[in-house]
Structure formats: C-alpha cells, structure tokens
Predict the structure.
Amino acid sequence: MMAIVCGTDFTPNAEAACDAAAAIAARTGRTLELVHVADGGDRDAAARRLDAEAERLRRRGATVEGRLLEGAPDETLVEHVNAAGAWLIVVGALGRRSRSRWAIGSTADRVAQTAAVPVLVVRSPAAFEAWAQDGKPLRVLVGADFSGSAQAAIRWTRALAEAGPCEVRIVHVYWPPEEHARLGIRGAVSMVDVHPEVEKVLARELATRFHDDAAGLGEIHVELSLGRVADSLVWRADRDADDLVVVGTHQRSGLDRLWHGSVSAGVLQGASASVACVPAAAAAGTQARSLPVVRSVLAATDFSELADEAVLHAWAVVADGGTVHLLHVIEPAELGATPNPLYAHFVRGRAPTPEERRALHREVADRLRQLVPAAAAARGITTECHVVEEASVAEAIARMAERLGVALVCLGSHGRSGLGRAFLGSVAEDVVRRGERPVLIVRRPEPVDPGD
C-alpha cells in the first residue's frame, strides 16, 4: 500500500497539515512519511525537530516514518515523491522558501503543479480529524470537466469515500453561449438560469463519461458560470461550507498556463476549504481499458441511393437493445435550396405555410421509417426519426449528435476528390470537422471492371 507523504517546515500551517495527514493515514491504514527539506541551517537541530514531530503524530494513531532531505523544499519534495511513489502528498496552505524565490508562487502551488501524485493543501485539519476519528462525513465538492484529470479527481475521491463517509457533489460549470451554440438551441441565452435542455445533455454526457467512476459516489450538478470556472467552484464551496474541494490539474506552466489559465491554481488561491489537486497521471493504469460498446448511432440521409444504403450500417454496428436515430435535414427554400421532388411544398420566392411545413415533416418522417430494416426489431433495436430544418446540413447533424449524445455518427460519402470535391463540398467531411463524435463514413463501392 503506497504511503502518504507530508512535507513540514515546522510552522503552524505545516503542523495543521501534519494533523490532517496523520488522520487520513490512520483512517486508510497507510504509512505516513513525514518529510522535512532543510534549505541550509543546522541539520542536527532539524533532525531533532523532525523526530519530535513524528513522535507527536504517532500518538495520534498513525504509523509514521521521518525523512530528512536537503535542497529547495518544493523541488526536493516532488523529486523524492516522483521517484519513490506515494498515494498522496499533504502540505500546508503556506510554506517557507528563500525570499528570492517567492515571486514564483507559494510552495503548495508549485508542488501541486509539478507532482505526479495527488496533492492535498490543508487549510484546517478539523474536518479530517472528525472524519477519521468520529466518522463524521466529509463534505466534498469535485470540479469536473470532460478531461482525464477530472476522471483522476473522481477516482481519487472514490478511494477517499471508500475509506470513510463522504458527502460528494460532482459539479460541472459551463459557459451558456458556448453550450447553446454547440447544441443548436435557439432563442435568447439566459445568463441566470440553467437551460433545461443544456442541463439534460451535460448531465447525460458527464454520467456517460464517468459512469464507472462516479456511479453511486454523489450527485452530478450542472451549473452556469459568468466568469472563471475556478471562481464559480470557490463560490459554491464557500456557500455550501464544503470541507474539501477536489480538482484535476493539467499542470500547465509558463505561457501555456498564462494563456489557458489554471482552474486548480485559481481554486488553490481562492478557496477557504482544503483543496486536493489530482493530475491525470494519477489515473494512468488504475483500471483496465475496456472495449467501447456502441449503444446509440445517428444516421443521416438525404434519401439518395448511397445515403439510404449507408444508414443500414447504423443497425449493423449498434449493440442489441441499442438505439438508431434516423435524421433528415430540410434545407429551407428561402435559403435557395435546389429543387427536389421531396420538397413539393417549397416554391422559390414563397415561404411554406405552417400547415405545409407540418405536412412535409410528416412525409419525411414516413420515408425515414420505411428505411428501418426488419431485423432491427428482432435484435431489440429502437429506431427514432428526426426531421429538422437548417441551412447547414453538416451543422445540423453535428448539433443533433451532441443533443442526442450518440456514440457514433453514420454517413454516406460520394468519395469525391479534386475539382469535384472543391466544387460540391462534402457534408461528411464537414461533420468530421465540426463535430466531436466518432464518424463512420460509408463510401460508394468502386465499380468492378468486367474485364478483370
């Protein structure tokens, strides 16, 4: 079982971190390695203080080993842990370093941004002591996006919850204009209330993304943000009096950190609660990779021979009991759509009436249902038909894929190249470029030369 490493410089803040580390070590049954990094000074005096602190923590029920190192505190601590391994590094919210190096940032921030294992920055040990000794639930807020570091944060939180009672909320913060555009939601964008469709889609996507790791751990909350994600998480943690905020960290540095920002650094600087920063590397190799199961497919057709043949692949790849979503996109006549017998109600220069539009939608839906193979019912596959009006077919397909949360998009392609491709364009290519879902492209078979 990997140890918990706690760095100490013998300050009151470090003592608080040691108390929290000892409580967690005792509760989880892990060894606590107490590390002091001497940055000059009397080494013998430092060793005596380290022994005394280790003995104090042993009286709290933890198995403690002391280790004295030399160098810059944050760099040496991280190098030691990265080489030897650990389940967790625990540090105080403030740490000492030579005055010339303070401009870089706090010791806690530097450790969190460079360590290959989770780092817990302790504000107060009280909640951890009550959790370890009295079984009082630890109130935990986990900030989650769709990254690997968020998955690592959720997995680490689950391990903590398995050691002792935790009340966990998994919170995803989003920017309304961005999500409304991605999902193709029309109308005014509220900057106050969460849109029901956005909440539904994001909650489903988060549950799918973290299904094995988040199941039964805590509720998933989708909340909008008007500013930095870090500020939103800090505000919610303060509002709900959380004991611990857990965030993943991409460990950006330099210009990359300045350009993209750092949620973990923002939470570290602003939160009044203790903060755990979990790097994506912490989740590497913790679970065996499993084969994906395709349970839902979006298949789009323009009713051409190729497209109608291509959509059959949707039923071929979807799992038994899955769902195939059939989609046809109507390009409105007022935008100059090419005449098509299907669009009998659309006449150039005249917008269709509401009754004509409804009739057309029913007609198209009937044609979609005629494409469903008989074998679908035998395999328990559900087929749902969708008809939308949109100027850009590719944009409509990409947005519908996001709103439905499908695992795969299936499209036919004429396989044009050169001038033909440049002149006519490619809906399939545009969907690949715009969308975030895997796309299966079915090409027209090459004609067989009778002479071969």
